[in-house]
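Lecture 7, part B: from sequences to assemblies.

Below are the input chains for today's worked example.
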Amino acid sequence: MTALAIRGGHLVDPAAGVDLPKDILLKDGRVAEIAAPGKLKSANGADVLDATGLTVAPGLVDIHVHLREPGHTHKETIATGTAAAAAGGFTAVAAMPNTLPVNDSPETTRWMQAPERGAVIRVFPIAAATRGSKGEAINDYAALKSAGAVAVTDDGLPILKDNIMREVLAAAARVGLSVIQHAEDTRLTQGAGGAASMNLGPVSFRLGLRGMPPEAESSLVERDIRLVTELRDTRAHLHVAHISTAAAVAAVRQARRNGLRVTCEVAPHHFLLTEEHVGLYNTNAKMNPPLRSAADRDAMIEAILDGVVDAIATDHAPHAVHEKEVEFENAPNGIIGLETALGLCLRWLHKEWKMPLGRVLSLLSAQPAALLGMKGRGTLTVGSFADAVVFDPKAEWTYNAREGKSKSRNTPFDGWTMQGKVRWTISEGRIANEKAS
Amino acid sequence: MNPTATPVRRQLHLPPVPASPFPYHPGSLLSVGDLSLDGVSHILTRATALENQDPLTRDHILSKRRVALLFYESSTRTRTSFELAAKGLGADTTLVSSLSSSIEKGESLKDTGLTLRALGAEAIILRHNASGAAWLLEAETRLPVLNAGDGMHEHPTQALLDLRTILAHLRPGTQTVNAETLAGVTVSIVGDILHSRVARSNMLLLPRLGARVLLCGPKELLPDLAAHAGPGIAIERDFEAALRQSQAIMMLRIQAERLAGLQLDLEEYKARYQLTGQRLAAHAPEAVVLHPGPIIRGLEVTAGVADGPQSVILEQVRNGVAIRMAVVERALLAETAKGGRA
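Predicted structure of the full complex, as C-alpha cells:
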C-alpha cells in the first residue's frame, strides 16, 4: 500500500492531548510517523496531501446509524451510507440491527462486513439483543462478538420486560459487550388510537397529533439504571441511545455520580431543534424519540457542555422521499444525519456556544470509539489506524440535501448554514472522500 | 448540578424556527389561522351577499369551474353543504370518497390529489382522518385546498359558520368583525375536546374577536395542556359553573365507544356533562346552544334541548351553505382579486 503524508496541517487529537501543527505519515493502514512541520523522516515516495490551513483530526466515529442493508436497500445501502459517512468526515460507523432480516446472527453480522458490500469506511455491526428484536429470547452474544458485533440493542424498539433486560445486561457483561437501549416505554406511546407521532405537549395538542410523553423515555432509563445498580458487580454497561429528555439526562447524571457504567449519546437534532420545528406537519422533523420541548433541548445542550453526554451520534435513519410524502402520523420515523453532524456541531457547539474544538471532536471520535471498544480508533498516534479527517474548521457552507451522498434526503437541516468543510476523509490509509477546496 | 452550566440556558442563541410556507395558495383555507380578521369579515359579508343573491345570477359566478370534493370520512352536513355551495355558484363538482375510488387500492393522498388536478380540478375540498392532511395536499398540488376537517386538528369552515350563528344572536346585524366584536362574550365548548377539530378551530378563532372560550370536560377528554393552545382559553371542569358564565354553549358529539376505551362510565359522564332542559333553565336560560352535529340525542344533549327554543343547531346547518359559498368563491377568485391568475 502506498504511503500518504499529510503536510502543513494542524493536528487536533483530543485523546492524545495534541493541538499543534504536525505532519503525519500514514502507511499500511496505520499511522507511521508524526512530526513537526517538514520533519517527517520516512516520507520519501509518499503521496502528499497539502493540509495547509486545515485541521487534521482522528476520523469521526458515529455509534448510531441505520444503513438499511440487508433488506431496505431502496432507503440506503452499506455502500451509499458509508459514502455519506465519509462525506461527513466519519471513518467508522456502528450499524443498527433493525434490518430485514434483523441482524441477530453471526452470519448477518459477518455479511455486513464483507468487502462485497462496498463500504468505503469501517462498519461495526451492532447485533440485536434478542431474537428478531422481539424482546423475548436472548441471542448468543459470544458468537456475535466473535463475528464482529461491538454492542447489542433492539434499537427501534425497547427491551421492555424487566427480567429480559436484566438478563441482557448480565449476558452482555459476561462477554464484554455494551447494551444500547432505545428507551421508550411503548405502553405510553402506542395507545388504542394508534402510535403517537410527536412529543406530548401544547404543540401536539394544537396540531391534533397523539403525543409521546417524556416519561416514556425517562421511566425506562430509570428502570434500566435500577437494573445496572443491581448488577453492579458484573460491570454491566448500559448505553442510552438518542437521549432526548431532561429527566432522562438527570437520571444518567445521577447514575454516573453513583459510579455506575451508564453512558448516553445525543443526536444533533435533539440539541438543536424543538417540537416547534415540526411546523405544519413536516415529516422530515418526525423521528423517534421525537423533537422535545425547549426545556428538554436546553437540558441536552447543558449536558453536552458539562460532560454528562459521552458521544454525539446521528441516528442516521434514511427513508425514501415517497415514504415521507404522506400524512404525518403515517410517515416513518427518522432523519439522515451523517453529512451534517460535523457542520452542525462546529457551527453551534463550537462557534456559537464556545465549546473548545478538541472537546467537540472528542464527542465525535475519541469518546464514542472508546465507548464501544474500537481499539486504535478515535486517535491519531503512531500505530493507531490511519483514520483521519482533514477539514477547514472556519469555512461556512450551505447544506443541500439533494447533493448528498446518502440515497435519501429526509432531513430538517436542508438549506442550513454549516461550519467546517471536509476536504479529505481517510479510512485506514485510503482516501474515502475528497472534496475540492 | 454544575453551577457553570445552569446560567448558560438563558444566554444561548438558538437556531430559529423557520417561517411557515403555508398557505401556498391565497385561496386555500387550511386553518382559521390563515385568515386575518379582515379576511373573516370578507367571508361573512360575502356569505350574506351570496345568500341574498338571485340564484340565477349567482349561478354565473363560478360557471363551469371545477371543484373536487375528496372525502376520506363519511359526512352529511359538511359534504352536502360544500356541494350545494359550489353548485349554487355554478361550479361543476365531483365527489371522490375513499370507499369507491382508487384510495381503496392504496393510492396515496399525493397521487389522488395530482390525479384530480390533472382531471381539471381547480380547487379541492378535503375531509381526511389524519391531522395535517390538508397541508400535505396543498403542498403537493399547489391548488387551493379547503380543509373540511383533518383528523383531530381543524375544521375552519365549521368555526366560521359557528361564528356567523353566534353573531346573529349575540351581535345581530354584524358583518365586519374586529378584536372587540365579541368582548364580554363567553363561549363554552363541552365534551370530547381532545379529539375535536371543531373545538380547535373555534378556540383559535373566537378569542381573536374578543370572546373568552371555556373548555369543559373530564381530564381524559380535555387534558390540562389544552389551556395553552392559545390566548383567551381556560378550562372549567364544572359544567354548571361553565353554563352560568356562558352566552353560547357548544356541545360536542360523544362517541360511546371512545368513553368505553378510556374507561369512562357512560352514565357517570351523562350525569356530569349532559345538557338537559333542567340544567339549561337553571344555569343558562338565555344562552344559545350550538352543536356541530351529528347529535347523539340522549347522550351529550337531551332531545328536549336539541329541539328546544335555545337550540340554534339547524341555523348552524343553514349558515354552513352560506359560509361555504363565500369560501369556495374565495378559493377560485382569490388570485383574480389579487390581479390575475398565475
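Note for the exam: Residues 157-317 of chain B form a domain with the Rossmann fold fold (CATH 3.40.50.1370). Keep this in mind when comparing with the next example.
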